[in-house]
């Protein structure tokens, strides 16, 4: 990521080196589909290698910047990812530019405009819906993209993605509760359009099935990963005629909502109702009682995303377009055997 | 913050416009002290106005970037500041580059190197010790600096600083507990080298004095704003022969540590011991019970810092070098009248 490379690279030189015509290079630059895949790949690699920037962008030199874009900066989750990306960027002399697009198309357009103006070397998109239109625009900007915690929108594409073993995490949290003796285990799910939500729910169901515990749909409540939905869903589960003795929430924030639903009913977490979360945010250690949860390696996911996008920016190959880092159950004080309720 | 301004500005042109000699402009650029203050100010304003960059930096054009530097990205506090700065930067088409320097001089050197290479338009430093050496280097880079939540290190300088009314916040939290009937009120303090810590402690003492409650030094325990210190200090206070009926912690994170110290002793927050925090992080609403706390307008502090540094980058005057935004007591469920302990 040297910032001192002053040479200007022309389309002609790229065409010569790739052994293709100038119009072919233009077609690649314009994101047209009438280019053979291996030709496109060869040309894009050369464009990246030489740090080519389209005319109208501010400089042909590397910007030594990476864009990190979130839907919202409204979760402590975000700062964990930022820490990992910043760590790698800082050491490489690459600045990390933070943006939030608030799920709004006007805001996304403004961000794409800013991105083009500052000629970033790469983009890391976090838990964001990457529409085909935005993917096409990023391709035209010839900027490498890595997605962290992908939603279903990128599943069929070749965009590199970094996630966590969500299914295994859902499985191990549920197995932990089964081992403690729980048989009625509630589940508070995440938004169904996110792949990670579906994987956690399937892990929960797989553990129950393996233990021979029949599935009960009334024990599964929808949520949106935020605190309020955990409070509502937890309350609904606790108010069932035959309430669960343990509740597994698919995010730490929803688990804290369940805590409050438990407290409001004059009950105690662990003593009366076991609670498990998912994420292992720093807040999980600070909760009272400290929360048993499934650790996602968020900082490491950020680090890997940064290393991957910097390698792509230098025209390197990456081994696999999809990587899932391991989750790990962290047992603290919010889980115990079922009380005699 | 146009990124399209291509003209190069020479030292000679700046000297002519300022009505001074070329060596005088050089002295200003090199941060030398042998320049009259009003001359320095006039020259610096012109340098900023014309977007002058030192030779060796990568471009004479505006970078349309602002650097936001933290000591550590280890607190949900950080993401609130980031949200405010990003908000303003995004709308202005200015990228926000995040860094953490980890209180290490090697890391600070690396950051200064990166800052110079990317030719940022301005720097926002958060709760960081800004040593005279770093201040001098930033002055040499001719980049405007704004400090958020200043420590004692910038108190005597002309660096613009944005904080909150910490003394008033300490006062109003303590008055709230006094009004509920508490007379033995514990205090968990922040690090003594930070101005905000001292102001909160003085506000606590002022409220007690105004109510005629004698100060008891055994009720004041040191902390460092982090969770573990709140747990330790809260435990020490609760284990006194004559324990307090309420504890005011100078950060939300320390208040959550006090929660856990209360729980471990088989007691309940509010019912047995009232707890007040300081910050109003999102976590305060999610705590169980939701935390009574002093709200710092962290997002607004970030917004104001961004607006200020962008104005300085354009050579505008700012009205006041020090601004304190108002804190506000937010009463939730962690405080009640003293129990009959």
UniProtKB/TrEMBL annotation, chains A, B:
Alphabetized PANTHER family for the sequence: LACI-RELATED TRANSCRIPTIONAL REPRESSOR, LACTOSE OPERON REPRESSOR
Keyword Transcription in annotation: yes
Transmembrane feature ranges: none
CDD domains the UniProt entry points to: HTH_LacI
PROSITE patterns: HTH_LACI_2
HTH lacI-type domain residues: 9-59
Keywords recorded for this protein, A-Z: DNA-binding, Transcription, Transcription regulation
Gene Ontology terms, MF aspect: DNA-binding transcription factor activity; transcription cis-regulatory region binding
Protein name in UniProt: Substrate-binding domain-containing protein
